[in-house]
């Protein structure tokens, strides 16, 4: 394989590789591995820290989280960065402050958990 073909092959593998933590943000959400307990805890920690923050504050926190997750060795840091990014994206056209109680993703997650076997309704 020549040098040009090797670079193209490497770029294709990098493009198709899942993000840190084994997640593929652009992929089918039903094909994603379930988050670990540590990743879930990291996401909830982010949500609670983000409570009441403006979009600019969330973007600053996202920048710090990306720096912490940059080496790719800490799955909870990667999950936290992904959650900061999700919240920042949610707030792009929102002039207010972040509120867990009106975050549609969080509310959907809570509703799903309440209907899971062994919880909530029977």
Automatic annotation (TrEMBL):
Region listing for Disordered, in residue ranges: 1-40
Start-end of Basic and acidic residues biased regions: 1-17
Protein name: Uncharacterized protein
């Amino acid at each position: 394989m020549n040098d040009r073909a090797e670079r193209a092959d490497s770029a294709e593998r990098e493009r198709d590789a899942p993000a840190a933590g084994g997640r593929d943000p652009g992929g089918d959400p039903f094909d994603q591995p379930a988050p670990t307990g540590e990743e879930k805890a990291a996401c909830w920690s982010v949500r609670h820290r983000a409570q009441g923050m403006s979009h600019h504050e969330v973007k600053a926190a996202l920048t710090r989280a990306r720096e912490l997750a940059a080496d790719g060795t800490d799955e909870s840091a990667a999950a936290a960065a992904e959650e900061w990014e999700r919240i920042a994206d949610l707030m792009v056209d929102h002039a207010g402050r972040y509120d867990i109680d009106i975050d549609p993703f969080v509310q959907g997650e809570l509703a799903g958990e309440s209907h899971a076997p062994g919880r909530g309704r029977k």
